[in-house]
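For practice. Any example?
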Amino acid sequence: MNRKLAFSLLFVAAQTVTVPAAADTGVRIVVPAHDIARGETITDSDLTYATVPGTALMAGTVTNLAAVKNMEARRMLHAGEALRADDVRHPIVVTRGQTVTMLFHAPGVELTAMGRSMGEGGVGDTVTVQNPSSFRMIVGVVSAPGTVVATGPASPSPSQRTARN
């Protein structure tokens, strides 16, 4: 009986003792060191780190300085606020309506043609370019200021699809 009582007391004591939870050290995120205006190119001196609880981390929050270095602010970025990946973009080097050089690569052949950009983008972004002589739309990747490497034709418009049927 003495043994049962000791076991019961030990069981009750084990349930009431609370073990301190592991300290949440947080997650280190990138934040602007000062306000950054829309369209400004971001440098190392514009950024710093802050620590937030892991439970407060939103999807897309930037945790690495290199991910946003030399990018352009899409909107006004306020000092100390969490920086998200969609708050920045590559600096625009091709603008809508700009005449661009289209490069076409095929095994053993490289062609160039002039076209008109139907959108804007930075290096690595995809834009649509209109061939001014045939009015066909070509999709390409911006490779340099004023230069787009063609990746294929743009999807035909609904009127073009029905005309072919």
About this structure: The chain has two domains: 27-89, 92-155. The mean pLDDT is 81. The longest helix spans residues 2-16. The chain is about 15% helix and 35% strand.
